[in-house]
Specification:
heterodimer; A: 172 residues; Four Helix Bundle (Hemerythrin (Met), subunit A); 77% helix; B: 102 residues; mainly alpha; Helix Hairpins; elongated
């Protein structure tokens, strides 16, 4: 499942950009770090023999979704959002609890990984061309596909309503 | 040289998921919380694709396809919500969103 050196380099970039997103104070920098993270995961998809998913990742995630994020950040002028409200006294305690929870999650999953004995042999390479993926999608997943279309319609109507009530409120 | 197994990908996925959940817990900017949620979804997608490669099964990739669609819909609705909240409260700090608190 790929060359270990390439894996480690890509993993370092992915984790580094994720930590950069978590720690940078400027929201635009966070968004750009996240674009880098998504692109790295797209490269992982190519390594994992999923070229179509990789292209969807780049166009939909790194392209459309992140452009939407950047647009909203710049529309609201929310680049620098520091403590608008007072920092309450329990802040340090909350951070410690969050760190503890993260450590428990990491440790328990590491324990599970070390205990499991997965055979190293992987299945033979599948045909993962868009044609094969589309045939698979439309032979076994027609109903979920329809539901997804309905979901997109409903979310579009929801966004229209969110945008519209504001205008009506302003007029009234 | 060690061979890259499914465990490596699961470990990377877990690390990215943990960083994303830390972002949700620690940050106060609602947009950055949304971005962290996206990163958690992405780490789950990475595990899906790794398992699809490992098991030689296309179902994992089809599921990733659905997850990406749902994430796109979620981002559109969520950002519209954030813009609506910003218009009324002039802030997207989640500490200011306490009207339901009583």
């Amino acid at each position: 499942m790929g060359n270990p050196i390439i894996f480690l380099l890509l993993a370092i970039v992915a984790i580094g950009s994720a930590i950069g997103m978590l720690t940078s104070h400027n929201a635009v920098h966070s968004a750009l770090y996240l674009v880098l993270n998504f692109a790295t995961i797209g490269v992982f998809y190519i390594v994992l023999n999923a070229p179509f998913i990789a292209m969807v990742q780049i166009t939909v995630y790194a392209g459309a979704i992140m452009v939407l994020f950047l647009f909203v950040i710049m529309l609201l002028g929310a680049e620098q959002l520091r403590g608008v409200t007072d920092v309450h006294g329990g802040e340090r305690f909350h951070r410690a609890v969050a760190g503890l929870l993260a450590a428990v999650l990491l440790l328990s999953s590491a324990l599970l990984l070390f205990q499991s004995e997965t055979p190293a042999a992987t299945a033979p390479m599948l045909d993962t061309s868009p044609t094969a993926l589309g045939l698979h999608l439309f032979s076994g997943y027609v109903f979920p596909f329809e539901v997804t279309g309905l979901l997109l319609l409903v979310s579009m109507i929801g966004v229209f309503i969110f945008g519209k009530t504001k205008k009506r409120g302003k007029d009234a | 040289m060690p061979e890259v197994t499914i465990d490596w990908y699961i470990a990377l996925s877990v690390i990215l998921f943990t960083i994303g959940s830390l972002g949700v817990l620690l940050r106060r900017n609602a947009i950055i919380i949304f971005m962290s949620v996206e990163m958690m979804l992405n780490s789950a997608n990475l595990a899906f694709v790794a398992f699809a490669r490992y098991l030689g099964d296309l179902d994992g990739q089809v599921l990733v396809f659905f997850v990406i669609t749902v994430a796109a819909a979620e981002v559109a609705v969520g950002l519209a919500l954030i813009v609506a909240i910003f218009r009324t409260k002039k802030s997207i700090n989640i500490d200011d969103m306490n009207l339901l608190k009583g």
